[in-house]
Amino acid sequence: MTIKRNQSHGSKHSRHSKAHDCAFCTIIPPHMTDHIIKHGDDEMRSWTMETMRLTEQFRGIRGIMGNMPSLAVSTGQKRRTVYDARQDVTLPGRLVRGEGGQASQDIAVNEAYDGAGATYDLYSQVYQRNSVDDRGLRIDSTVHYDVRYDNAFWNGNQMVYGDGDGRLFNRFTIAIDVIGHELTHGVVQFEAGLLYQSESGALNESFADVFGSLVKQRTLNQTAEQADWLIGAGLLAPGINGQALRSLKAPGTAYDDPMLGKDPQPALYANRYRGRQDNGGVHINSGIPNHAFYLAAIAIGGFAWEKAGRIWYIALRDVLRSRSTFSAAAGATIRVAGDLYGQNSAEQSAVRDAWRAVGVT
């Protein structure tokens, strides 16, 4: 099925505005870094503090440049470029691989290149989207950022990956769903521009998790039933008690470790985090819409990117706005499911039942 923009859903705010969204997003949530600082040894605290310092420095730069046009290049075609920071913090670094170039002997370079390609292909081949910005944005990535940098991020223009410290985290290119997650923050940036605060911010994180998982599932050719529904499997270092950073299938069960803490994500709206930390719980409460997508995808069956993913993508592209709530997301996805597959169809019923199951409707 070819996806076309449904103009009846109303005109978007400027599709390429970045004023309201998460123009700088990291994969490691603040509640995890806070726990490491409180409970880790001196070496762990040192790595984490340095990671936080650089992260805040980037966030400050993005705050100043947030309304400026993107410096990234739109090419109109698939084009990936990978750079090596060589443990420095100057971006983008030394060019090491371009589109169509030979594979590197550096596994991180190849993982960044392949992950960017898999994400591009999902959006292009399934949803007819022309790269992150839908205008053919070149996907730039930098690997080996800083020394033992424990994070990966989309900075509004490109991807950046640390190597991890080896005791808490492995290299951040190791998980293709992390790559898909971070690049999807770019898609959100150029579409709904979901404000990175409270429920709209949790939706921002959730859409990134959903499509990050779909990138992995499509790469592995897995059905919804076969998929692990984990974000960041393989990222936690040996000895850490956990499977991944998050679980769409079972929020709150991804990890439980003395150094990292316990996964705080709820699956039910009644159990949502109501505090002010983490921008109102954007990394915590994202477990609720994550679980709704999982339930809908399982009920629909087959490959989750084909129907469930299509519903979520069109809702993001055509319906949601910068301050959309969970209730608005539920209404949007139910509406889109009906538009695509028919009113009271099995697909629409699956989406409606999923949002009801997590307590949003």
Question: Please, could you describe this protein's structure?
Answer:
The protein has 361 residues and is α+β, with helices and mostly antiparallel strands. The chain has two domains: 171 residues, Neutral Protease Domain 2 (Neutral Protease, domain 2, Orthogonal Bundle); 166 residues, Elastase, domain 1 (Roll). Helices cover 42% and strands 9% of the residues. The chain contains ten helices and ten strands. β5 and β6 form a beta hairpin. α3 packs across α5. The chain is globular, with a radius of gyration of 19 Å. About 7% of the residues have low confidence.
Q: Concise description?
A:
This protein has 361 residues and is of the alpha+beta class. The protein has helices at residues 30-39, 42-65, 107-127, 176-190, 198-220, 277-281, 287-300, 308-319, 326-341, 346-357; strands at residues 25-26, 80-84, 94-98, 139-143, 152-154, 159-161, 230-231, 246-247, 256-257, 261-262.
* Count of discrete domains: 2
- Weakly predicted, low-confidence segments: 6-21, 62-71
Name of the CATH first level of the largest domain: Mainly Alpha
**What is the arithmetic mean of pLDDT?**
90
Q: What is the multimeric organization of the chains shown?
A: single chain
CATH architecture heading of the largest domain = Orthogonal Bundle
**Beta-strand residue percentage:** 5-15%
* Morphology: globular
Structure characteristics:
361 residues, alpha+beta, Neutral Protease, domain 2, Elastase, domain 1, 2 domains, six-stranded mixed β-sheet, two-stranded antiparallel sheet, 10 helices, 42% helix, 9% strand
